[in-house]
Amino acid sequence: MNQKIWSDVDSYYEKLIVRPDPRFNKIIEASLEAGLPSINITSSLGKLLELLVRFQGASRVLEIGTLGGYSTAWFAQGLPPGGKVISLEIDSERAAIALRNLSQFEFSNLVDIQVGDALDMMKTLHETGEGPFDLIFIDAEKSQYCEYLEWAIKLSRPGTMIVADNVVRRGKIIDESSEDSSVNGIRAFNDKVSQDPHLRATVLQTVSPKGHDGFYLIYVDPESQIK
């Protein structure tokens, strides 16, 4: 197996069953033109996020890391009328780009992009009673994943789904001697998840045009003592 096969298979399924709205492609184009890094999820994984919202029956979604608003749009597309996505972005220029990108969608009024440090904003959301959220997506600074998880749990309810992206790192996650802060941040996150008796979790490895990576799927279950 190689990168070309992964890309070709992804393209096959995108054309066959994903069939994203062309406006999603415009988000990618506008983000690249604005100089944003090409680190957004693929459309197939975007569709997965939309389906997770629908499967969960989620009406309130919290996203940590907006970038150009690509994954934000997939979440919003899965929401019922009156639903809400709160997306936290540390960079004001990126937030402005995301707002422009999302303005072309009829569901843009369901999105609230807040600018600032995510940990500070999560604390504020907790203190002001904005939670609980039905689904929380962690896709920001990898070295802070443990801290994001702590606040995500506080902003959860029994049955909340927490999804964390980029947790395989092209297989580097198994390198115990790594000096990469992102790898070590995810390894610490792994330890935290595995030691919490109230979380049920699994990791789905992914291969795509973006390479080899993976998603954490975490179920918040206060009564659980079993993974």
Please write the string of helix (H) and strand (E) elements: HHHEHEHEHEHEHEE
For this structure, the CATH topology is Rossmann fold
What value does the average pLDDT take? Answer: 94
**Unreliable segments (pLDDT under 50, ≥5 consecutive)?**
none
Word description of this protein:
The protein is α/β, with parallel strands linked by helices. The protein has a single domain (3-220), classed as 3-Layer(aba) Sandwich (Rossmann fold). It is built from eight helices and seven strands; from the N terminus they run H-H-H-E-H-E-H-E-H-E-H-E-H-E-E. A seven-stranded mixed β-sheet has the order 3-2-1-4-5-7-6, with helices on both faces. Helix 7 (145-154) links the parallel strand 4 (135-138) and strand 5 (161-165). Helix 2 packs antiparallel against helix 5 and helix 6 packs parallel to helix 7. The longest helix has 16 residues, at 3-18. The mean pLDDT is 94.
What are its keywords?
227 residues, Rossmann fold, 8 helices, 43% helix
Tell me the layout of helices and strands.
Layout: H1 3-18, H2 22-33, H3 43-56, E1 60-64, H4 70-78, E2 84-89, H5 92-102, E3 111-115, H6 118-127, E4 135-138, H7 145-154, E5 161-165, H8 181-195, E6 199-208, E7 211-220
Parallel strand pairs: 1-2, 1-4, 2-3, 4-5
Antiparallel strand pairs: 5-7, 6-7
What can be said about this structure in brief?
The chain is of the alpha/beta class and 227 residues long. It has helices spanning 3-18, 22-33, 43-56, 70-78, 92-102, 118-127, 145-154, 181-195, and strands at residues 60-64, 84-89, 111-115, 135-138, 161-165, 199-208, 211-220.
